[in-house]
Amino acid sequence: MDKPKNPFRWSSDNKRYHTYHYYLTQRFGGKVSRVSLNAGMSCPNLDGTKGVGGCIYCSPTGSGEFAGDPREQISTQFAQIAARMGNKWDTQKHIAYLQARTNTYAPVERLREIYEQALGCPGVVGLAIATRPDCLPESVCDLLAEFAGRTYLTVELGLQTANDRTGAALNRCYGFSDFLDGYARLHARGILVGVHIINGLPGESHEVMLETAQLLAGLDLHLVKIHLLHVLAGTPLAQRFAEEGFPLLTREAYVQIVCDQLERFPPQFVIGRLTGDGAPDALIGPDWSRKKLCVLNEIDKELARRDSWQGKKYSSR
């Protein structure tokens, strides 16, 4: 019996959303892996410039559990991680991903050195740079524009939520207006922008999470990464969870939220991820998130059950 035809045009399999794999395959003619690197950066709400303690969900590694060792040179990290990934994926093409903490938070000369090192690693066809939207001064944006003219560059901004009340509770130390300013600086220079959001933040309803997605749908973004809130040992969030016991999303609720968000995103948005990876030995909850493939399968099934796809409810008005 023939399988039903996928109604979503930006797909070469059963996915009803615009996967990063599909985009990279179309652009580079084959599989491209992302190699996570750690440049040893700091953050303005760690060093006291804007705050201390960091965002309450952020791990001691600055969300770099799967990146390299910052004590090692970028080239050494890359070689080690690419070799490990080679056991899983057969590809000679890579995106060098500066993942941990704030990778535009340094003098321009230092940033140039780091970016050049990453771009010079074997098989690298692009750079992905994770940062905060309030760490994009004009001089840094000019540098990023220079690299965007040389390679496939995506600057990934950690927004997490468009709700400033939630943002303040996270100790994020910037507002949605700061995000829009950072986005505008990059967009004006033709730099591809990615955005990270987190579903399941304490106190946020389904409607609030959907509002964040709806606001992003009105921007000219290249990439969106949807994460699940993980409570990780050693974070302020873990302490709050132990003291207050706030509810965590169920898998069923998470699947519904993600599908609702996908329906409202423009179909051209590349979806970098639909859930996150919590370090197994540090994960407090939700425990169901350990079965990542199961979560992705449930999202696929729910979109099929709805006869829906990314962008079905998108309106440019």
Oligomer: single chain
- The number of distinct helices, counting runs of at least 4 residues, comes to 10
Rg, nearest Å: 19 Å
The total strand number stands at 9
Portion in helices: 25-40%
Strand order of the largest sheet: 1-2-3-4-5-6-8
Largest sheet: 7 strands, parallel
Distance between the termini: 41 Å
Mean pLDDT: 91
Task: Write a short abstract of this structure.
By secondary structure, the protein is α/β, with parallel strands linked by helices.
Keywords:
10 helices, 317 residues, alpha/beta, globular, seven-stranded parallel beta sheet, 36% helix
Explain how this protein is built.
It is a single chain. The protein is of the alpha/beta class. Helix content is 36%, strand content 16%. The protein contains 10 helices and 9 strands. The strands form 2 sheets. Strands 1-2-3-4-5-6-8 form a 7-stranded parallel β-sheet. A two-stranded antiparallel sheet has the order 7-9. Helix 3 packs parallel to helix 4 and helix 7 packs parallel to helix 9. The longest helix has 15 residues. It is globular, with a radius of gyration of 19 Å. The termini are far apart. The model has no long low-confidence stretch (mean pLDDT 91).
Walk me through the topology:
Blueprint: H1 20-28, E1 33-37, H2 74-85, E2 94-98, H3 108-119, E3 124-131, H4 138-148, E4 152-160, H5 164-169, H6 176-188, E5 192-199, H7 206-217, E6 223-228, E7 231-232, H8 236-244, H9 251-264, E8 270-273, E9 283-285, H10 292-306
Parallel strand pairs: 1-2, 2-3, 3-4, 4-5, 5-6, 6-8
Antiparallel strand pairs: 7-9
